[in-house]
Amino acid sequence: MSDSTFDFVIVGGGTAGLVVAARLSEDPNTSVLVLEAGDVHTDDPRIRTPAFWLSVLGTPDFDWSYRTVPQKSLGNKVVPLSQGKLLGGSSAINGLAFVANSKAAVDSWSAFGNPGWDWDTLGPYYRKSHTRAPPSEAAANHLRLSYLQESARGTDGPVQVSFPEEVSDPIPAAWVDTVSALGFPASSDPFSGDFSGGYVNALSVDPVSRTRSDAATAYLEPAKSRPNLKIVTGALVEKVVFESSGAVPKTVGVQVKHDGKTITYKANKEVILAAGVFGTPKVLELSGVGSRTLLESLGIPVVVDNPNVGENLQDHPCSSISFEVNDGVKTLDALSRQEPEALGAAFVQYQTSKSGPFAVGNYTGSLLPVPDFTGHDGKSTLDKVLQQVKGAAPVYGPFTPHHDAFVHSVLGNPADSAANIFVYAACANTDATDESVGADVMVRSSDSDATPGNYLTLCAALLFPLSRGSSHITSADPATKPSIDPRYLDHPLDLEVQARLLRYTETIIRAEPLKRFIKPNGRRSARAPADLSDLETAKEHAKRTALSCWHPTSTCAMLPLECGGVVDPQLHVHGIEGLRIVDSSIIPLATRGNTQTTVYAVAERAADLIKKQYSLY
């Protein structure tokens, strides 16, 4: 293996990149190079300890710390967007929720013009990527895990997945029981593709060590000693290099800045982009693949004119409200306020028994239809809302009619889940008027508010937003971050749905058995209304508290070129030979829930597609 020439050069050592690198390097005759802009922090306790994930967001050593442009529909709020900048990528800093996509959402990929990308094909790759440890009998009973199905469980995949073994906290059970009593019991195993209801989700936490299981520990660790696999960290990719003498540009390598030097690594077979939803379109545009108008304005020679690059950005907006709990109900507020006694007790518990609040991530939630659109008057209410927003709906590009049709079908089907309402046991700080909120979407009482007491925060996330935005470079300098505009709640239907979800939190906290934990006439999060029952009030609160769930996708969508696409069903970049994309940017539709499981599944399938093309074993 030459120092500068490899069969495959992978740009990005994150969730997708390490999956593909590990799988391709299983063939000892295939040489693989991974280029990662971040560094190695695999053994850092802040990464390995599950509950520390919030503390690393916004930290330059671990996080790209992207920011949106001011969001017009959110009163010009600038929203922080965390993405992992280290070996393991976002799988090393996320909230650890291990939630599968839905069959309906994945089947839509095929319907959009991607034959072979449906649940029957992709579903097995979800299972291939992980091993889900069965919970103990006590945890299964306490956390209401009777919905689990052995047929849907990953049994021998690299990522280690488990459930919390905390059986003394009454809130998760009360949550599941309350959502069930309201008519939304857990319907089946989430990894069956047909799930809805209230539930406790699995976590990417090793069941033995109770540490984070991510792409670095699960995929890279067993493979890193292979002589045909090389990892280079601290490598800033400047551009992909093409040979353009033929009818179709041919990818020949990657130009990188490393240790102050410019190096070109050559690829005998392919360059594989796995730089993430913001990094991958940035690399394409820096390399001359993108909108001619944009590239020429920045003095970048055009290799392929494709205005779809960087478009179709989708993300889950999240709005929230916190409710004070009764005295004696344990929450994480003392830890959020960094009270020494609470921190010390939690640390000792984790060190001695790998249990307690440090051992878990975020795990109590629900995947629901929009309650206003179910029941006796549900269809007429939905029809009225669709008619109301029809004239005001923006058109974001050629994907719009396909996107609209899918979202309307989900909203009209009470068996589908368009919403994620989840609970976090601490007061939120989401009503910031400037960037001081940092990356804290769900937790940490703000210093200025110094919110006393203990709280439950209910968060409402819109799973299939119709608002679509963009991520584009603004400079030919590879060190400059892209301009990111998700256009949160820009589409009027998004605001209608988000407000109704937020309004439904009032119904949830007033229902038994959760009601018995909420303090009557208790305090709420700063500037929250005393009652969200009024729809217009709920709309204003939804906009004021909206932030990101950090689930962005689709900036290099797998779609036909005329439909807004950047890659074909083989994940080849349209109009270029030897260039493929394997990360979250190719996912054409926002995922139903957290993105990490779908990124693992896509990367696993991408590896098989590459192996098949090149007859690798």
UniProtKB/TrEMBL annotation:
Q: Which domain of life is it from?
A: Eukaryota
Q: Which InterPro entries match?
A: FAD/NAD-bd_sf, GMC_OxRdtase, GMC_OxRdtase_N, GMC_OxRtase_C
From which residue to which does the signal peptide run?
none
Task: Spell out the Pfam families in the cross-references.
Answer: GMC_oxred_C, GMC_oxred_N
- Glucose-methanol-choline oxidoreductase N-terminal domain location: 6-318
Q: Which family does it belong to?
A: Belongs to the GMC oxidoreductase family.
The protein depicted here goes by the name GMC oxidoreductase
Species of origin: Podospora didyma
